[in-house]
Amino acid sequence: MGGVGALLRPAAWKLNQRRDISSWLAKWFPKAPAKSVVALKTPIKVELVAGKTYKWCVCGRSKKQPFCDGSHFFQRTGLSPLKFKAQETRMVALCTCKATQKPPYCDGTHRSERVQKAEVGSPL
Question: Where is each Iron-binding zinc finger CDGSH type domain found (predicted)?
């Protein structure tokens, strides 16, 4: 029924193997995502090019603000960048405090007392 290999591997080994895989996955892909952190307390003005796709940093940990550099993955945040396509070529202010209600665009939330009192690199 399971061949010679089944005789050599006890059933408990299969359970431990599943547990090892799930703990490894949980380490890299947490169930509850981390909170975004304040990258900067002012927006960054950039020129978006019509038709080009961008990835805006959601986690606040990217060294290439306001865009994603993959830090969310290597720091195991459980967060993903916001992918968007520019509809027209124009200058825009992209949020870096990560508290905007209109991501990826700045809505002035960085001027709030809550953001101004927060430390750069800390969650709100």
Answer: 41-75, 79-116
